[in-house]
């Protein structure tokens, strides 16, 4: 029903925001491979004929959000993600292209164990559709990073796009921090895992998608050091999200079914998409309910 109503408003299922039609903005949260579920959300928005007036993202949400902001459809992103991430040979080939050209390049900045250059990785893995700058995107995008020494959140919405989304996704101990604008930046989820507050006053309805999850496993088994590190980060992020929801919640807040997947389970892209497919109908119902509620309030 919503898709038909929005299409009738301006004769298409594309741009939303004509007179009398509702507007939406979308915040995509961080969560590593769990964030592949955002693709189902984009497909649902496409099916509803909703083109967001603005997008915000943190970590994997910044990456997926950049694809949508660049004009990619949910189907485009799905096909690209499966083709790129589901095959070990394809991943190995792309990582091979990232090898240092010389020993000088390898050790020029000192030996950094388990710290990969995420900006180089993104440039080798993301589609050519994504432009170099925020200004060349089709939909306004804001991503969040964390200023390591400044001890504060840093929203980024202009200039070089790749360094911004790299900073937003620079998970500590896995990716090296990103230097940008005289700051040392790390994972945006540290301060703002689901940046729906970036979208205040950007649309009538803000949709926020949380894929952070939490530690899962057998209570009788001690977690490994890596599992404990990622699990502790998830607990911290859920605490931040809970606080923000109490103070200024978005119109729609949803959590796809992704808790059983690990932060680095990118090879399981097809399973993540299958298991989180229910978010599509959940989002459609939430959009319908939000619009119906506002219409009833206006009639009172």
TrEMBL record:
Start and end residues of each PNPLA domain: 26-200
Location of the active site: 59 (nucleophile), 187 (proton acceptor)
Motif mapping: GXGXXG: 30-35
Motif DGA/G location, chain numbering: 187-189
Keyword Chaperone: no
Domain of life: Bacteria
UniProt short sequence motif GXSXG, positions renumbered to this chain: 57-61
MF-aspect GO terms: hydrolase activity
InterPro entries attached to this UniProt entry: Acyl_Trfase/lysoPLipase (IPR016035), NTE (IPR050301), PNPLA_dom (IPR002641)
Gene Ontology BP annotations: lipid catabolic process
Keyword annotations of the record: Hydrolase, Lipid degradation, Lipid metabolism
Annotated signal peptide: none
Protein name: Patatin
Species of the source: Phyllobacterium brassicacearum
